[in-house]
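Cross-check.
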Amino acid sequence: MEHALKILGKASSINVRKVLWTCEELGLSYEREDWGGGYASTHTPEFLRLNPNALVPVIIDEAGVLWESNTICRYLANKHQNTDLLPHEPAARARVEQWMDWQATELNAAWSYAFTALVRKDPEFQDPHHIAAGVRGWNQKMGILEHQLAATKAYVAGPRFSLADIVIGLSVNRWLITPMERPDYPAIDEYFQRLAQRPGFLKHGCNGLP
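Predicted model, tokenized:
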């Protein structure tokens, strides 16, 4: 049987995993194709016609082509009218999207150098001063998350699991697997244990390095 949803991107990519976990929460079937490092090149004319940024994931469904992982997650929740993952009420929805945007901008910018140096071991990212600065900046951003989780005592945007937890939960996993000094953040530790009880996280949360 042919699936209505096609996902382009390797399953080890953190951004692809956002979409896969969202599909798991929504109970969606899909067909996935391997694209990206080690697989089909995203720099071919074929792929660039789909996403001119040469990045995964890309999805294709009956409505057309869509890229940008957080946008794809929002689209899927909207399409399938799931107001648990993405509330309809404006203020509640804005709180979820606020943290999704924070993950895509502030948090992503913070981990870039340190993760590339310490996990991917890219030879062009081995300046010890930049690594130390990257670790400090990353831990500082995670301190913002610690404060938020200590306040909610549950999930990022409040008492209920949402799309914000999918995109930030994967970022927490990335932080935890990086060999570096980390502060003691008990609220994040408890949060990660809550996420680990979800089948979608168990399936897609730790499946390889991004």
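The helical segments are 14-26, 45-48, 69-79, 90-118, 128-152, 163-177, 186-195, 199-204. The longest strand covers residues 58-61. Passed to J.P. for a second look.
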